[in-house]
Specification:
mainly beta; 2 domains; twelve-stranded mixed β-sheet
C-alpha cells in the first residue's frame, strides 16, 4: 500500500490500550497454508515484469500512480509516477531510491532497506506469521482484466488489521488489496485499474532515467544504521508478533543539532504490518499534547516522554500503537 504522510494536527487522544489478547495455537496445516499463499505472492512480486495503473482509496480520498516493474536475476527495478497531487517520480533499484520533485526542482537520493516491493504485502519470510493470522479463501474475481483468487488473512487477535487480497491465478501477483479493521470493515483499498503483464520493460532504460538529474538540486539524506539500545532506548514489554527489523538515526533538525540528539526511527514488523517509532528531542514550539490520528489504514499516536517527543505510526489499530508508545523506555 502507498504510505500516507503523517499530518501535523491530531485529534484528541483516546483511552489506554486494551490488554493483550491471548493468541490461539497454530496447527501445522494452518501454517503451511498461509506460508504457501504468502510465499507465492512474494515470489510473484519479484519475478513478474508489468506496467499498470494503481489506485488507492481511503474514505473520500483517492490517489493513483502508474508503475513500471522489471526484474533481471536478483536485480529489482521499478518506477512509480504519481497521477494525482503534486508531480512525483520515484525510482527504486534494489535498495537505491531516487525521488524526483519537479515543482521544487529537487531530486532525493537515498538508500533504503525495502520491506517489500510495490504493491507490498509480505514484509518478511517469518513463519511465525501463521501464529497471528489465519487464511480463508473467498472464491475468484476478475481485476484489471486478469482472473484472480481472493484470499482473506484474518488476524487472531485485536492487535493487527486483516487483509483481503486478490492474486493473479497464474503466478500470484497481488492485483488488489483491502485493509480490514478489527470488525472486518474496509479501511483502505488499493487495486490495479489496468495491468499489462510480462510487459517489455527495460531495466537499462529505467536506470538511465533514474540517473538524469540535470537542472535539479540533489539532496542525499543520510540514514545511519544503528540499534535502539545504542541510542539508549528499550521496549520494556514486547508487542506480540512484532519484531524489530531495523533502526536508523535520521538527519538532524535544528531542534536536534547536538551530537547524539538526531531523530531515531525504530521499525517493527509482524511479517505483514509494520510499525515505526520516531523519537526526537521535545520542542514546546512544535509539539503539543499527546494525541492520536486515524487516516484510513494508517494510524498515528504521539506522546511526550521526559525530554523527548515520541511518534508511533503504522497500519495497525491505535491500541497497538499505544502499546508501543507506552512500552518505550529510556535507559538511565
Amino acid at each position: 500500500m502507498i504510505a500516507m504522510l503523517l499530518a501535523m494536527n491530531y485529534v484528541a487522544a483516546q483511552g489506554d490500550p486494551l490488554a493483550t489478547v491471548p493468541v490461539p495455537a497454530t496447527t501445522a496445516a494452518e501454517s503451511r497454508s498461509i506460508d504457501d499463499w504468502l510465499t507465492r505472492m512474494h515470489e510473484a512480486s519479484k519475478s513478474r515484469a508489468y506496467i499498470g495503473t494503481f489506485v488507492v482509496s481511503s474514505g473520500e480520498a483517492m490517489s493513483s500512480a502508474k508503475i513500471w516493474h522489471v526484474c533481471e536475476g536478483n536485480q529489482q527495478m521499478e518506477r512509480v509516477e504519481t497521477l494525482t497531487g503534486p508531480p512525483r517520480s520515484i525510482f527504486r533499484h534494489n535498495d537505491q531510491v531516487v525521488t524526483f520533485l519537479p515543482d521544487q526542482k529537487v531530486v532525493r537520493r537515498e538508500k533504503r532497506e525495502s520491506l517489500g516491493l510495490f504493491p507490498g504485502v509480505l514484509q518478511s519470510t517469518d513463519r511465525r506469521i501463521a501464529d497471528f493470522y489465519k487464511v480463508r479463501l473467498e472464491g475468484a474475481e476478475r481485476v484489471a482484466g486478469v482472473d484472480a483468487d481472493i484470499v482473506v488473512l484474518v488476524p487472531k487477535d485485536k492487535l493487527r488489521f486483516g487483509y483481503r487480497i486478490w492474486t493473479e491465478q497464474k503466478n500470484g501477483l497481488v492485483v488488489k488489496l483491502q485493509t480490514l479493521d478489527t470488525d472486518g470493515q474496509v479501511l483502505e483499498q488499493a487495486a490495479f485499474s489496468e495491468l499489462q503483464l510480462d510487459a517489455p520493460v527495460k531495466m537499462d532504460k529505467l536506470l538511465q532515467m533514474m540517473g538524469k538529474a540535470d537542472g535539479y538540486r540533489v539532496e542525499k539524506p543520510v540514514l545511519v544504521k544503528t540499534t535502539a539500545g545504542a541510542q539508549g532506548w528499550v521496549l520494556k514489554t514486547p508487542v506480540p508478533g512484532f519484531k524489530p527489523v531495523s533502526c536508523y538515526k535520521r538527519p538532524a533538525t535544528p531542534a536536534s543539532a547536538m551530537a547524539g540528539q538526531e531523530p531515531m526511527q525504530w521499525i517493527f514488523s509482524d511479517g505483514l504490518a509494520s510499525v515505526s517509532i520516531f523519537v526526537e528531542p521535545f520542542d514546546p514550539q512544535r509539539h503539543g499534547k499527546a494525541s492520536s490520528l486515524s487516516m484510513g489504514a494508517t494510524q498515528a499516536a504521539t506522546r511526550q516522554l521526559d525530554a523527548y517527543w515520541v511518534t508511533v505510526m503504522g497500519e495497525v489499530p491505535l491500541t497497538t500503537l499505544r502499546l508501543f508508545a507506552n512500552g518505550l523506555e529510556r535507559r538511565k
